[in-house]
Specification:
By secondary structure, this protein is of the alpha+beta class. Helix content is about 45%, strand content about 25%. It folds into two domains: about 110 residues, 2-Layer Sandwich (Alpha-Beta Plaits); about 90 residues, no CATH class. Helix 5 packs across helix 7.
Length: about 230
């Protein structure tokens, strides 16, 4: 027997019954094709690493199953890909160690509460370190041209500090904005954002403020590209 697990994210705007029905669809499908369902883990609503289809959260499910061979995987993935209720999915073939890990996790051998506490402590330490290194905070709206909507979108994508923004080229920032929401951010012009962020990360606020006085909507005043509107 071969062991697999498929993890998928269901659109959170669906009703509770529709969400459960979506997961049950794939449980029923696997069973109808002779697979043994080992476990169904409803992990609930979680924050996405970056926006997907304008969603910042999703309902996570994981189905672990056994099958004689892997022929059921490709048709199942095709259905998942075509299912508008599914935002993302990932199928993984489990080796004996993966099977054992999942079993121990279900039986409580691996302490979930302990892991959660450790993770919270690590995140708290990271935030404290970031705050110490950035006395003015990482308010991306301090960058001329970046408004609340863009700031929220960039942070949702994982760009949450001046240093991280400074490390991106203007071209890459534009690609990220279009990837997040092409309709909303197509007129944004991030030409100066990296350089502004570099000054902010270095704490050179006087120089940044002086430069921003010559900018309009984050653009050099002579530039005609973009709308100049801050979102």
């Amino acid at each position: 027997m071969r062991n697999y697990e498929v993890t998928f994210i269901v659109d959170p705007v669906l009703t509770g019954d529709e969400i459960k029905g979506t997961a049950q669809t794939y449980v029923d499908r696997l069973q109808s094709e002779g697979c043994k369902i080992v476990a169904v883990d409803e992990m609930g609503l979680r924050q996405l690493a970056y926006p997907i289809n304008r969603r910042t959260t999703g309902i996570y499910y994981c189905i672990e199953f056994e099958t004689e061979n892997g022929v059921v995987v490709d048709p199942m993935e095709l259905s998942l890909r075509r299912d508008e209720r599914i935002m993302r999915f990932l199928t993984v073939k489990l080796d004996k160690f993966g099977v054992e890990y999942n079993k121990n996790k279900r039986e409580g051998v691996i302490g979930k509460a302990k892991r959660t506490k450790m993770r919270e402590q690590q995140e708290a330490a990271q935030k404290k370190a970031q705050k110490a290194n950035q006395p003015h905070g990482d308010n991306l709206k301090r960058i001329e041209g970046i408004g609340p909507k863009v700031s929220e979108a960039l942070k949702g994508y994982g760009i949450s500090t001046f240093a991280m923004l400074a490390a991106k080229t203007p071209e890459r920032i534009k690609e990220i904005l279009l990837e997040i929401d092409a309709d909303r951010f197509q007129n944004q012009d991030p030409t100066t954002w990296s350089k502004q962020a570099e000054l902010a990360a270095a704490g050179d606020w006087d120089k940044l403020k002086a430069w921003q006085e010559d900018l309009k909507g984050g653009r050099v005043a002579s530039s005609q590209s973009g709308s100049g509107e801050e979102e």
